[in-house]
Amino acid sequence: MLPFTARHLLALAAPVAMLAACSGGDAADPAAEGTAAAPAAAAGEAPPVLKEREENFEAIGKAFKAIRGQLDADAPDFALIAASATDINTRAAAIPNHFPAGTSTADGFKTEALPAIWEKPEEFKAAAQKLVDESAKLASLAPGGDKAAVAAQAMAMGGACKGCHDKFRQDDEK
Ligand code: HEC
Q1: Quick check: is 174 in a domain?
Q2: 15 and 54: one domain?
Q3: Same structural domain for residues 33 and 61?
Q4: CATH code for the domain of 159
Q5: Confidence (pLDDT) at 73
Q6: pLDDT tens digits, residue range 73-125?
Q7: Whose CA is nearest to atom 25 of ligand 1?
């Protein structure tokens, strides 16, 4: 009796273990496929440069807003406009460094950067350079205090933002 029972148990041991593993697996699978698979790749390993470029654009946006705010005022603070333009100038020069290969939506990242950035890198660089140039002009013009001229140059600089966004940034802001 004993030998039979032992053998019987041994024979059962493997299939039972397999069943346990399988049912565990079966139970976990639907959840794993629904939640873990895709986001693990996308959310887990966003390179720091993605955050950097977002922060850089946010700061550019704030600086531009500050300039427009001053130009809406009766007595604009031209020193502040010049400082904001200089800030934009520095940040514009950094833009091309913030788009290394592997940081697009095609790589699974949530970003408004369009594939055109990597398809036409020279054009993208030129668009960034346009902002470098226009912001430099604004920075040198602002201390003169000619409101109309400063406002016109701020508009020209805004055109550099729009020129790049139209081609290289996903338009989903409303
Ligand atoms: C050379 C191209 C280029 C220029 C020039 C440019 N931008 Fe952008 N901007 C982008 C791209 C591309 C994104 C999307 C980045 C991403 O999602 O990774 C962006 C995103 C932004 C954002 C959103 C940041 C966030 O929170 O994600 C703001 C705000 C912004 N830009 C403002 C400006 C302003 C203001 C100017 C001009 C003073 C400007 N940009 C000039 C390409 C440009």
Answers
A1: no
A2: no
A3: no
A4: 1.20.120.10
A5: 96
A6: 999 999 999 999 999 999 999 999 999 999 999 899 999 999 999 999 999 99
A7: 54
CB of 168 within 6 A of ligand 1: the answer is yes
Rounded to two decimals, what is the model's pTM? 0.79
* Number of domains observed in the structure of the chain: 2
- Smallest CA-to-CA distance from 125 within 96, 103, 152, 100 is with 96
Same domain, residue pair 84 and 159: yes
Closest ligand 1 atom to Cα of 111: 17
pLDDT tens, position by position, 135-170:
999 999 999 999 999 999 999 999 999 999 999 999
Distance (angstroms) between ligand 1 centre and the Cα of 76 equals 25
Q: What is the pLDDT of residues 10-69, one digit of tens each?
A: 454 444 444 444 444 344 444 433 333 334 344 557 889 999 999 999 999 999 999 999
**Looking at ligand 1, which atom is closest to the CA of residue 112?**
17
Q: Does one domain contain both 38 and 57?
A: no
Residue 17 sits in which domain range?
1-45
If asked whether residues 81 and 164 sit together in one domain, one would say yes
